[in-house]
Amino acid sequence: MRIGVTIFLTDETITPVRLARELEERGYAGLYLPEHTHIPVSRVTPWPAGGELPREYGRTLDPFIALGQAAAVTERLGLGTGITLITQHDPIDLAKQIATLDHLSGGRLTFGLGFGWNVEEASDHGVQWRTRRELGRDRMALMRALWADEPTAYEGEFGSVAASHAHPKPVQKPRGPVTGPRTLVGGAAGPKLFSHITEYADGWLPIGGGGLTRSLPPLRTAWEEAGRDPAQLQVVPYAVLPSPGKLAHYAELGIREVVLQLPPGGEDEVLRTLDDYQRFL
User: Taking residues 194-221, what's their average pLDDT?
Assistant: First the structure.
């Protein structure tokens, strides 16, 4: 099983360069980084995990810049976003960022995307909460047009782009309905999420990895009903606190990759955790 890690990198933690070098040297498969542009102080939306929102949420580094640093000092380490808040970006700019990072890293990028949970953060970006999923689908369609081999126009409900020269292209070639780097959608199990996964993604990035025995069968059914190859569905449990039994359970479910949660700490704390996690490699 491939073992990657995720961490809230901030201005107070281990640096992307040091962490990426350590991960590659130790044989980890990938580094995935979350995104929050800002956290409004006057908050109404509760943190999904409950309790006070941890300090690191308001100090998170930009994932694309941090992953660019990681790419520059590694050769094999996978690079991923977990997750990009797709509705909070201009899709033309985002398509360029994604394609550039994938190109410069030699095709090592996994584009993990989601629709967010912090209503106040999204609102500052002009996102209407009730239509965020439709907006995300529209953003993806526009980006796929820019990643197409030939200039392709797109006219959607929320945005449009003229047929354009847009290079570099993502390294990975189109596969079925998917264009761009490996694309995983994060979010809670359900028909709405599964429709997004089957329409434009390579698979699912379930946070925490709980309940997969129950949720995988309907996802696999939706995938096959959409005409997708069952062998190509990728499910990557994300931000997992590991145990041997948990990873064995994932393997029994046919899962081939998992992303473990690192603490948002300094070098000593993070490296100690990597030492501990190496028993799972």
Answer: 97
Pairwise CA distance, residues 270 & 23, whole Å:
11
Q: What is 112-128 written as a DSSP string?
A: EEE--S-HHHHHHTT--
In the numeric block, the tokens 């929050």 are attached to: 36
Q: What is the DSSP letter of 14?
A: -
Report helix, strand or coil for 153: coil
Report DSSP state, residue 129: G
SS3 18: helix
The percent helix, strand, coil of the chain (3-state, each to 5) is: 40, 15, 40
Does residue 43 have a pLDDT over 90?
no
**Considering only CA atoms, which of 35, 182, 196, 173 is closest in space to residue 116?**
35
Amino acid sitting at position 275: D
38/121 Cα distance (integer angstroms): 7
The tally of CA atoms less than 13 A away on the side-chain side of residue 68 is: 11
Position 203: which residue type? G
pTM as predicted: 0.97
Give the integer Cα–Cα distance in Å for 183 and 243.
27
Q: Collapsing DSSP states into helix, strand and coil, what is residue 183?
A: strand
Token duo for residue 121: 């953060």
Give 112's strand partners. Answer: 184
The letter for the amino acid at 61 is: L
Residue of 214, 17, 87, 106 lying closest to 206 (CA atoms): 214
Spatial distance between the Cα atoms of 189 and 39, rounded to a whole number of angstroms: 26
Angle at CA 19, nearest 5°, toward 13 and 23? Answer: 145
Going by the DSSP 8-state scheme, the letter that residue 226 receives in this structure is T
pLDDT of 51 reads 94
